[in-house]
Amino acid sequence: MIPGVSRAGATIVSAMLLGADRRSPAEFSFRLAMPTMVGAFAYEAFKDRAELAHANIMLIVVGFACSFIFGWIVVKTFLGYVQRHTFALFAWWRILFGAIGLAAIYFI
Hints:
It contains four helices and no strands.
């Protein structure tokens, strides 16, 4: 793992280097995350199944619904942004925080 390199960023940059437009790899990157998140949720639910009470099920349903709705809004907003703008701001953001991460590792 390299500080400043994200799964989404690596996927998007790789696809663009191979000639893809900006929106397609961004969309693919988000879709690629879905099975991982479902698997992580299923694993955690299975691991903590003894602690799940009937009363907690409603909290899980509400949490899932809220996460789904706001996740959908964020993805749609980001994909709209990607169609109109480049990834330069995202790239500089990742470079800045990667440098901060490397400095923290070096100095701490």
